[in-house]
Input
Amino acid sequence: MSSPAITHLSWGKLEVADHGTFKDAKLWPGGARAWDWSETGTRHEPGIQPADVAELLAQGAEVVVLSRGMHERLLTCPDTLALLEERGVEVHVLQTEEAVATYESLRTTRPVGALIHSTC
Output
C-alpha cells in the first residue's frame, strides 16, 4: 500500500490526497492525520520526539522523512534518531520543501512515513 500524495504545500497548509488539509501532518502507508505536537510534548527544541515517529513505524513505515520546517527551526531529538537507527529505519531530516519532494519520490515505491511541519 502506498503512502498518500501531498498535493499542495504552502506556509501553514499541507493538502494530502483523500485525507484533507493540515498545518502539520503525519503520513504513512495508507494513511494520514494531523500531527498534534501536544500529544507528545513536541516543541521546536528539543524537537521531534521518539513518540512522534512510533505511530509511523507501527503503520509499517520502513523509511521516515522528518521535516525541519520551512526555515529549519524544528530540531529532531537525538533519542528519536537513535530509535530509528536501532530499528534499521532509513531516515531523512530535511527542510520542509525538500522533505516533501523526498517523500513524494519515495511514496509509491517504498513504505514511507513522514512528519511534515508546514511553518517555521
User: Anything to note?
Assistant: The longest strand covers residues 112-117.
